[in-house]
Amino acid sequence: MLLNLNIIDLAVVKSLDLDLEQGMSVLTGETGAGKSILLTALGLALGDRADSGYVRPNSKRAEINLEFDLADAPLAQLWLKDNELDAEQQCLIRRVVNADGRSKAYINNRPVTLQALQELSEKLVEIHGQHAHLTLLNPDEQRRLLDAYAKNQPLLDSVNACFRQWQQTSKELASLIKSSTDQSEREELLRYQLDELQQLDLANFSYAELSEEHAKLANLGQILSTGQTQVDLLYENDRQSVNHQLNQSLSELSHLAQFAPELNEICTMLSEAQIQVEEASLQLRRFLEAQEADPQRLDDIENRIGIVQNLSRKHHVSPDELPELVNKLEHELDSLAHSSERIEALTAASATLLADYQQQAAELSVQRKLSGQKLQQQISAMIKELGMPQGEFLVDIAALDSATPKLNGKDKIEFLVSANPGLPAKPLVKVASGGELSRISLAIQVTTSSDKTTPTMIFDEVDSGIGGGIAEIVGQKLRSLSHNRQVMCVTHLPQVAAQAHHHLYVEKNNQTDVTSSSVRLLDTQERIEEIARMLGGIHITANTLAHAQEMLFHSDFGTQPEHTITGN
């Protein structure tokens, strides 16, 4: 159960600290007072996408904190334990949205991903939006509702896992069968290409080393000529070599060092340089003596480089990628050689998966039909109570025309309704008016929620398009849902508000430069006045107040403590 909602600098709310109770709570207020922002805050805290527009003007960030008691949420307790986020029976959720649009989420003061937050939220709160009746027209939503009501999720997951395995197996099998039609030609081509490539001895092949050796042999004359010139300049020319000049400089400076000892360090450096020049000259001479022209080797390398480049262009790869190409071609050839065995194995696997799918899908169909009959009876009874006395609701489950396995089973599920006697049932989208669709949607939401384990349920103006005595019944149905859970409802209907155990009032404050909204819990007298406002509008008469009081006490809500919770 949600114990506390705390908001700081979110849109029109500067600060709000709201304690919540068990049972049914309604949220009312003038249009534009800010009722929607509370649901927005809940949605953000529970994992909705965030952006900078949610942050109150002139604020650095918005923050929403939720506190839950998990005594009535065993699935949430288990999830927290499995994810090492448990803290006895308490759960604290915090969501921070920065002015730049970035956000952070925390569970029990530990940072978590948005996905983790959403996984936990599903086990704590269920929100029914004000446009749920429009979503209801989607066939996939109708299937989802039926499966949720029938508790088919484990079986549905198994069916879909089997379908995906069958689909992957069938795709590979089809590819192999298609390629096997010209298999012999492909095998012949692969063998020719491999023979051509394997002549290069690619196991010991390095194009970079080959290119380096070619460059050296091709420029050997220049290497020998220039190298000998440098040997002369460095050491062997008696009067002009670097060694001779260093020796002369060292001699002159050593003589001066007896008058200027500071020159000793320079002399040491020149002596070391002379040693280095001598060593470099010796190594260069040894290198040059080891070089030998090899025209035949140069021709062989040039020929091999030409072959490599031609094969690279032919196969549209770089020279260095040729060894990898050989591995790829060998693997393909091996696959083709064993394709008949693979085709046989995949055919058997596909048949087994298909049989498993058909069996599980058939079981899913049976479960859907049994639950569909029960669901249509309950919803038909409820829409009669909601002002459609001749209404009949049907869950039509038919086998799909295609024998090919499909995701979510082999059933076509469609919700049908007949609003008047003697008329055949037709799809919701064709027969239901806006008001009728709202009532049918509400009936489905209440019916499919009655046996759920979610401890907190929120209904956002799901009673739109309903009024009069029907609105009172709607309030009673929502109140009945709160017998074993927490129900929150945003409403404009006094008949619904009168049924609540707790009444929260949202009001807007325009006295400062930035508009703000506050929320407070109404006491008995304030509830009477608010319901009267909802009944009579601007001018509230004594009769309106009396009517409001009668509605309130007729709901048998009893009295409640006169305390207030405010946001400022």
Indicate the overall shape. Answer: elongated
Largest sheet: 6 strands, antiparallel
Q: Averaging pLDDT over every residue, what do you get?
A: 84
- Radius of gyration in whole Å, from Cα? 42 Å
Question: Ranges with pLDDT <50 over ≥5 residues?
Answer: 557-568
Number of beta-strand segments: 15
What fraction of the residues are assigned to beta strands by DSSP? 15-25%
- Which structural class is indicated by helix and strand composition? alpha/beta
Strand order of the largest sheet: 2-1-4-5-6-7
Briefly say what this structure is.
The chain is of the alpha/beta class and 568 residues long.
Architecture overview:
- It is a single chain.
- This protein starts with a strand and ends in a 14-residue tail after the last helix.
- It has helices at 35-45, 74-82, 114-121, 132-135, 139-150, 153-180, 183-198, 207-218, 220-236, 242-257, 264-290, 295-315, 322-337, 339-385, 428-431, 434-449, 468-481, 494-497, 524-536, 542-554; strands at residues 2-10, 13-19, 23-28, 61-69, 90-98, 103-107, 110-112, 125-128, 392-399, 411-418, 426-427, 456-460, 486-490, 502-509, 516-521.
- It has a domain at 185-337.
- It is α/β, with parallel strands linked by helices.
- Helix 5 (139-150) runs parallel beside helix 16 (434-449).
- The protein has a 6-stranded antiparallel sheet with strand order 2-1-4-5-6-7. The protein has a 6-stranded mixed sheet with strand order 8-12-13-3-14-15.
- The protein is built from 20 helices and 15 strands.
